[in-house]
Amino acid sequence: MNIYTKTGDKGQTGLIGARTDKDAPRVEAYGTIDEANSFIGKAMTELERGRFDDLLADLEAIQNELFDCGGDLADVRKTPQYKTSEESVERLEQRIDVLMDEPPLLERFILPGGTPAAATLHIARTIVRRAERQTVSLAKAGEDFPPVVQRYLNRLSDYLFAAARVANARLDVPDNEYVRSAKVFKDGGRSKKQGE
């Protein structure tokens, strides 16, 4: 079976319902989502079964939901069939609340790192933030896509921050605080998330 089609050799790609340039802002956005999804897959290989079964289940669901987000951004038909749901956003919020109660309270900003899985989850988090910025640009340009995609990406970056902290805490690896940070979290980091 050949996986190459040669249809993109001149710098164009297929959306759902049209063709466009491979460097179009919409393609950049769903390509960035795919990049984040790949790092989430890498993080999953670094999480030990048994100790991290809840995170692994979350991340598997998230990988599917990121495919939904990418598909929604690629769907430019007159009557698109969007898949990203408000329920997915709500589920992330519920999981964030659970996970943020597990690691030690925060007083200062932290630096990405710690265990391999935590470091990879932080990479995924920053890539999701880039995808979110790209969807903001799409919205400002008047491009049609479901607003829930942007909300999902915003919440997902918070989830990945919480998951990275849990990945460290369960292995007794402390988060590395940003040494020049003031004490910015009055509630231990429960409400204000790093990066917003």
Explain this structure to me?
The chain has helices at 25-45, 53-74, 86-100, 116-140, 147-169, and strands spanning 12-14, 19-21, 110-111, 176-177. The protein has 196 residues and is mainly alpha-helical. It has a single domain, classed as Up-down Bundle (Hypothetical Protein Ta1238, Chain: A), CATH 1.20.1200.10. The strands form two sheets. A two-stranded antiparallel sheet has the order 1-2. It has a two-stranded antiparallel ribbon with strand order 3-4. A hairpin with a 4-residue loop joins strand 1 (12-14) and strand 2 (19-21). Helix 1 runs antiparallel to helix 4 (116-140) and helix 2 (53-74) runs antiparallel to helix 5 (147-169). The mean pLDDT is 90.
Low-confidence segments, given as residue ranges, are none
Distance from N terminus to C terminus (CA atoms, Å) equals 45 Å
Largest sheet: 2 strands, antiparallel
Mean pLDDT figure: 90
Reading off the top of the CATH hierarchy, the class is best stated as Mainly Alpha
Specify the structural class.
mainly alpha
CATH superfamily descriptor: Cobalamin adenosyltransferase-like
Which fold name is given in CATH as the topology? Hypothetical Protein Ta1238, Chain: A
Summarize the amount of helix as a percent range. 40-55%
Order of helices and strands: EEHHHEHHE
Q: Total number of helical segments?
A: 5
Largest sheet strand order = 1-2
The general outline is: elongated
Total separate domains: 1
Q: How much strand?
A: 5-15%
CATH architecture: Up-down Bundle
